[in-house]
Sequence to fold (238 residues):
Amino acid sequence: MQVPRYLEADHLISLATAATAAVSTVIVDNLKYVNDVVGSAPVDKWMDSISGVGHRIKHGHSLGDLSEVFDQFGLDGVLDYFNHLGKDLCSPHGIPLPFLNEIRQVFDVKVLDSIEWGCINAGDILPSGLSLVGMFKTFNRIKATEKVSRQDIAIQTITITANLALGIGTTNPFMISKVIFDVSMLAWSAGKTEEWQAFLESQFFKSTSTSIFEFCTSLIEYLRTYWTSCTGVTLLTH
Fold:
């Protein structure tokens, strides 16, 4: 018995992604107490040596700082460093994406905007992880499918729109950037529909593609001849 499209793994994962994204704020609100535990290790003091709004972006909280942490504090310092980042993930401002401060300075982005769009917290991690799993599931399903139905295209479109809207609404940078992959998968799926395959086999497509190919061939030959007449240099044709 064939499993209905809406019960297939990648669609169920997309629904779970949307659900966790919708409650991401609630997740963080219930984890804020973790961030209230102040660390006493040397690396903790180094990471928070700059205070104020956006201090995590400006110093010590990016994975790009990892080599400096190891040089100054050794392996124990690296472990304390990740422990500190884990606690900061449980706060609304979260931790910055790698090299966010450098990117912010190049494009002159305000600190508050950088926090909003360039930092991730615990509420972003779960839907982002589910999205990553869903990406692989979607890719494998489309790869194994010879023909895709209109229903499948409609469900994919709705899912992409919902996840993008939730990504923007929750300012989740991963879910927003993932739309590039989603649209690519949608285009791939559309190429496997009966309508598209029928179009590719139609006389109109064949005659049009032949005409375009002949035009491009003639244009290349013209440009090659023009180049030779201007420079005296004959370009190879093969």
